[in-house]
Model the fold of this input.
Amino acid sequence: MSQPKAIFRRFTSDVQSIAWPTKFTFPFYYEPHPLTILAAEELQQELNTHPLIAPLFDTNNSDRLPCGKMFGVLVVKNKEGEIGYLAGFSGKLGSHTDLEGFVPLIFDLWNEDGFFAKEGIEVKAINAINAKIEQLESDRIYIKAKDLLKQQIAEEKIAIEQKKAELKVLKNERKAIRKEQENILSAEDFQTLNDDLVRQSLRDKYELRVLTEYWQEQINTSKDITTRIEEELNFLKEERKNKSNGLQQKLFAAYKFLNYKGEEQSLLDIFAKTVVQQPPAAAGDCAAPKLLQYAYEHQYTPIAMGEFWWGESPKSEIRKHQHFYPACRGKCEPILGHMLEGLEVDDNPLLINPALNRPIDVIYEDDYFAVVNKPEDFLSVPGIYILDSVYERMKLRYPEATGPLIVHRLDMATSGILIIAKDKDSHKALQSQFIKKSLEKRYVAILDGIIAEDEGIIELPLRIDFDDRPRQMVCYEYGKYAKTRWEVIERKDGKTKVYFYPITGRTHQLRMHASHPEGLNTPIVGDDLYGTKAERLYLHAERITLRHPKTFEEITFQVKEKF
Done:
């Protein structure tokens, strides 16, 4: 009989020669430590053959998961000073919430001593309300009355419209008779005719009123039945909402997280300090909090951590199989902010200005506008943590300039042409060309793979991922229309150099359209959000054609890429 797999996993490879990190991983932007990479590789070997997990990601299995899953490894030191690692996954794996060898849920709602067992009275009350709502909504008389009401409203509309059309014809006939007989009949005979026509008009109005009242009576009879039941349904739904909200608040208060100092805070305490105030759905069920919680509860010292995607990418997001990803900001940043207190963590690289003391080349300027070549890893406008930007540099260069200066933006990681307006009128004239899409832009990029086709068009609507800013996601319901034309320049050393012609200008449009499975399915080299980090993002705004804001002359500017 095989032994149960321990949650504290010892490395199967020799790790004695690998130096430990001096600080713990900053979870929102990191290069995985060699120990983290080794732990992930060992876990991935297990995932390939695990009898319960492997089938969930097998494309030949009809019961596989609809998309992949985020897994995490936490390198730790136990009380005996031995190094090992913990493994975990976000949320559930199919129907599994707790698997042997993986860290468990922080807060198991459903076990016999769990939250819902303790709140049994409230749960039963909500279940009773649900049962009553289901009973009312499936009531035969209610369903029949609803269907009849719908039918009666439609029939009333047709009947009234037909009657009005009929009366309109009669009215026109009477009008024609009046006009025809006015100069033929004597005054007395014409008055008699007119009186008769008036009586006909009154009769028609009476018939329309009778018809309207008939249908209203029919409709009101059906409405009486549906309204009575719907009022009860609305009351029950409001009661359910209030009870559910109360139960959720209790749940959030009971869902507690430790930090390195041994302090404990609930979800309510943690998110009360944020702008959103309330915890989002599934907060605390991601791999990173689960791993840290288990480590603290069992006196393991955290050394390094990493999370990787396993399996197919979701349709909306970009997740590459086996790639490492940072913790999500929407759900995890407040929680991990608490859980890492007391632990010495790597500095946040987003606080470091990579553009410090780097010059900006101005490739053209006149009295109205300027064109600059923005270096890679340089902000277009001031950020949350770093003020240094093209905007701040241009304010210093052109102290007499008026207006917003920046006409459009480039991602911090993207290099290339950026337009600067020196006055409000020029800014308005230039920005109008971006809004109306009357100018032409061309980017150069190197993609991390070979593209078979020579050219094409990508149309994928985009919106912000609210749980993981600034990442974007494809969303056909709420996303903004985004269109990119592309063509191959060359293929070399397993990479493809391309031109991108963005028809629209959405955030991260070219990066998303390159990497998404429904786009080119090949990320731009160095894309740390949608691909793999390198020394830089290989994306450059190489050429732009626009009209001069004052003379309206068409001008083209071009700056060759440095890759």
Observations:
- The two ends are 58 Å apart (CA to CA).
